[in-house]
């Protein structure tokens, strides 16, 4: 039987939403194996002096839990 766990993370970038999502997955991949999918829950952007200064994505990352075999 396969078990899937879901964690919620926030990725950020100074360049784009796409890069923010890639950063989130890359960072989680450092400590989590068997990532199956990413669901983007929300987008956000910070504004400084009338311009977007950073992009963010709130996402749910799903991964399969294994017994270490």
Beta strand %? over 45%
Instruction: Write down the overall geometry.
Output: elongated
State the CATH superfamily name: Flavin-binding protein dodecin
Order of helices and strands: EHEE
Q: What class would the helix/strand composition place it in? A: alpha+beta
CATH topology: Dodecin subunit-like
Low-confidence blocks of residues: none
InterPro entries: Dodecin, Dodecin-like, Dodecin-like_sf
Organism: Membranihabitans marinus
Pfam families: Dodecin
Protein name: Dodecin family protein
Keywords:
single chain; 69 residues; alpha+beta; Dodecin subunit-like; 3-stranded antiparallel β-sheet; 19% helix
Protein model, in words:
This is Dodecin family protein. Pfam families: Dodecin. InterPro entries: Dodecin, Dodecin-like, Dodecin-like_sf. The protein has 69 residues and is an alpha+beta fold. It has a single domain (3-65), classed as Dodecin subunit-like, CATH 3.30.1660.10. 19% of the residues lie in helices and 58% in strands. It has 1 helix and 3 strands, in the order βαββ. The chain has a 3-stranded antiparallel β-sheet with strand order 1-3-2, covered by helices on one side. A hairpin with a 2-residue loop joins strand 2 and strand 3. The longest helix is centred in the middle third of the chain and has 13 residues, at 17-29. It is elongated.
């Amino acid at each position: 039987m396969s078990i899937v766990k879901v964690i919620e993370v926030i990725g950020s970038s100074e360049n784009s939403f796409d890069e923010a999502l890639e950063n989130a997955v890359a960072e989680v991949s450092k400590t989590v194996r068997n990532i199956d999918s990413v669901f983007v829950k929300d987008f956000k952007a910070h504004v400084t002096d009338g311009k977007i200064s950073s992009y963010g994505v709130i996402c749910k990352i799903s991964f399969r839990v294994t017994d270490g075999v």
